[in-house]
Amino acid sequence: MRLNKFIIRAAYAGTCGLLLTTTSKAQSSLDNYIEQGIASNKSIQQQGFILEKNIYALKEAKSLFLPSVTFNTSYTKAQGGRTIGLPLGDLLNNVYSSLNQLTGSHAFPQVANQKVLLNPDNFYDAHFRTSLPLLNAELNYNKRIKSQQLDLQKEEILLYKRELVKEIKTAYYQYLKAMNAVAIYQSSLELVNEGLRVNNALLKNEKANRTAVLRSENEVSRINASLTSAIASKESAKNYFNFLLNKTLTDSIIIDVSFSLPPTQNLSDQGVDKREELAKLTTAAAINNNVTGLAKSYLTPKISTFLDLGSQEFDWKFNSDSRYYLFGVSLEWNLFSFGRNTYKIKQAVADQKSIAAQTDYVKIQLQTELSVRQHEWESSLAQYQAAVTQQRTAQTYYGDEMKLYKEGLAIYIELLDAQNQLINARLQTNISLYDMWIAHAAIERATAGFIIQ
């Protein structure tokens, strides 16, 4: 009875973590970890800052269509330089002399000729200028490019997030694989200890020799060593998982989930059209189209208007005579620039061809990746199904051999072979199950199937 109890416990410990159905709580556990990883990832945070910068760049591009108001002032102090002669004396003195004779007075004094300095001396000009673009194709293309650069950065962030989701899922499954391997070795240790106990009992009853006991002791040592290695692998898997979540490496991992087979619906029907890599190239092509339009925008004249409200006068005077307004409309049209604009257009067209070629190449590359992932999935599924059958057979084989060995109808080497087959079958079932989940995460990544909030 005690032997049967050990067999049942070992079989349960080796398979309970593998074949139970997935619970809703389990899914929330992994999803919560994914949310934590996305929220705490430094690379994603850095890309978020770049996105914020692009948002402000778009707002800046939109603000260029609105009026702008600037304040300008200047003061000049001058002496010397060119002058202009004003012959006031030659023009007025004869007239003034005649008037003085007629009036018998000196009311009209003589006036000297004047020289006026062309450079304004002790002169100020202060004004507010309000300007507004009326027609400017460059501003339109600039706004479109900034908007598309914002979309491009959003795709970049999604790309970072999707890759991180795959890494977190893979690390999570690797940890579960290592954790279950530890459980399997622990249950296997009970098996070999039970075998050692049986051999010691048979040796006392002179139904077995010393060699069987020594082999049993060696098996105990071997399983202990394997258990130690499995524990180390489990800790390494835990450290890497916590590293992805930007947490303390030794933090415990909540495991409230048991996995059955991954969902297989439409795995072979999914394509790569939702991949962010293709979306980025599509956006890049749209940006390049607007860059081409920007290069051609020189064909359209620029029209803008302005209004100056200010004051200008000598000796810092400010009165109704010094105040002024000035309104104007300006037109700028680039008619000839020795082919510079043509070269810009040709550069943009060349970039457009390059992006188109890159898009075709990346699409083939992504389709190849998906095909490889699908084959890996099919292989892992076949290996798991074979491992389950092998474990079931190995469990029966070990039970039969243990009974025969106790009754003296089988040699120890046969029992040892059945025991090793059972342990290896459990390990292979554990490995193949989580390899399926890892392959499923890879296909999910290859098809951009995971919904990122």
TrEMBL record:
GO terms for molecular function: efflux transmembrane transporter activity; porin activity. It holds the Pfam family OEP. Keywords: Cell outer membrane, Membrane, Signal, Transmembrane, Transmembrane beta strand, Transport. The keyword Transport applies. It is found in: Cell outer membrane. Residues 1-26 form the signal peptide. Belongs to the outer membrane factor (OMF) (TC 1.B.17) family. This is Outer membrane protein TolC. It comes from Filimonas lacunae. The lineage of its organism: Bacteria, Pseudomonadati, Bacteroidota, Chitinophagia, Chitinophagales.
